[in-house]
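SAM-dependent MTase RsmB/NOP-type domain-containing protein, pasting as requested.
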Amino acid sequence: MAPVRKKTSKLRKSPKNPSKIQPKNNSTSESEENSPPPAEQFELGDHNSDSASELSSDGDDPLTDDFLQGSDDDEEKASEGASGSGSDSDDDNIEKKSIAIDEEKAREEEDAEAEMQLNINQESDEFRLPTKEELGEEALRPPDLSNLQRRIKEIVRALSNFKALRHDGSTRKDYVDQLKKDICMYYGYNEFLIGALVEMFPVVELMELIEAFEKPRPICLRTNTLKTRRRDLADVLINRGVNLDPLSKWSKVKAEDSVLVGRGMVYRKRVSRTLKTEEFYSTMQCNSATIAIFSRSATLVGLVVYDSQVPIGATPEYMAGFYMLQSASSFLPVMALAPQEKERVVDMAAAPGGKTTYIAALMKNTGIIFANEMKVPRLKSLTANLHRLGVSNTVVCNYDGKESDQLLPNVSPKENSVLADSRTINLSEKLSDPVFKLNIHYAAFHSQLPKVLGVNAIDRVLLDAPCSGTGVISKDESVKTSKSLEDIQKCAHLQKELILAAIDMVDANSKSGGYIVYSTCSIMVAENEAVIDYALKRRDVKLVPCGLDFGRPGFTKFREQRFHPSLEKTRRFYPHVHNMDGFFVAKLKKMSSSKPGVKPSETAEKEEETTTFVKEKEIKGGVKENGNVSSESEFKKKKRKFSSKPSNGLKENGKESSESEHKKRKKRQFPSKEEISNASIFFSLGAAISTLRRRHESIL
Ligand SMILES: C[S@@+](CC[C@H](N)C(=O)[O-])C[C@H]1O[C@@H](n2cnc3c(N)ncnc32)[C@H](O)[C@@H]1O
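Structure tokens follow.
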């Protein structure tokens, strides 16, 4: 492809207002809209890969950065041509050229100045909000999308420089209210969600986020290192006619820079390193499946698919379990968990198993993973993926992850009492089912996972919690309209119950572990920082770095809420910043099994009802109505005083005495790692065995 060179003068053009919103699906204007980047920055619009030729003929070809050097040569040749080959002398020539260059430069500067002045004048035009009457008339007509889009742009512009651009008589709130209405109408959100997002982001960034939600995220593959190596997989795919384009490490891209690679489109935004021309060209010129490899470490092996004409979820390699299709963000919690070989690991909410299979690969199929999923229909995909990827260290469980004392209403008392009546059975002998031959167990009776596995029994727990999904709008548009405040509260409530249960299962004295990773694909503070803050107050855990070298720090303050300062160690990921689904990751280290000031069977709901909590509220003093702590250390001091009466082996400071802790551990013994690794298939199912068979068969 012969690249078209952009004139140097064009690159020097003064910046237009970067806050201007890109028109929806406008693929040509981005490079125009933004300021000319420094030599090593790119600013590209969305482009379909098969429109590569269009790009080459476009005067605004965003690839021009690569040809800045070339344009100098052209100018030289041109001026040589003008002066002719028989000029007076070389010195004269040089002087003429120099004058011409100076004049050209002066002209460009004048142009740039004039344009900047024009921009300033345009921008100082204040924007007037529509009157009630105008809005009334507008409501009677079908929505005028271009008008809405223009108004959104104008309001964002006005809000970004409110002092200068506000219209007399209108408040900031008036502008924000109109903006929310217009966004709801134009992008199809409900008022609740837009209200929540407006509270989280400045308007310019809000628009970037909303626009990013309109575009698909890259499809990623994870090489299954239990079956193959990245290089081998790449070779096989190349042989199938797949273009492989190795990108540099994702981690090299700074937090605020984005490598944006999407299906049928590629664009870069404020990338602080120069892309090699060949690297970029091979990206743009692809005409079949093009795959870019990114790898953050020796253990993470990922492939980004951004333009595929082959069904990437149905290749022989896929069927053979050489790779798993999963979003880039779903690598993160497992990387943070960092499971070690021979450990005891729980994946509390596992289906369809993207993260379980990654954990198994990192553990090289050693130790044991309890992959739990509460919803029976989802066990099918979980089991199928474990099989396909050759995972053999995993027990699939079907329990409620919570620690609630309440039995599930749809489960018979018989099923719930199964554990009490259980015996150990060698399933490999009893069952000829290949599932069990592969060491994948399936316990199909309802109970609570923490009760089955016991307390202090696990080295690491991953809680990839059920959530509102507000980070994955580009995958599931229904989230725009289906979520309400009540939904978020319900999710947060369940998440609080699950995180306490997760912590309780972990052995604080684990030699290699003692960690809990909490993640969601929600960007709501109530489902993320607030849940972690809740756990920090109720269990002896501390936040530790996630070990991820990018992502934004979690909130320590959000509106009137104040969280523990260590919340800064959590990580947030956004589509407009990291080109990943909206995601949250936190890593906790369990310090001891004490539960400061709370009952062991506490659930979020119960706690609010118990007198303990009422008393706690009374003693908080400095704690506001909404639960914010004005002085946390003061609160802790008061709380310690309140729970100073030692009971049930609790020390004055609320920590268990080592004696009672020791007794407890003795009472509930978990098999050693060696026992687990060497064990053939044993599973306590007892009277549930026939139920298990039936349910298992129906699932398969
Ligand atoms: C975010 S998804 C998990 C995705 C999975 N970790 C993966 O990477 O493939 C959350 C899962 O939690 C399950 N779930 C919901 N409530 C649960 C509960 N009380 N206990 C255990 N799992 C639950 C949901 O059915 C859902 O499959």
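Note for the archive: The chain has a mean pLDDT of 67.
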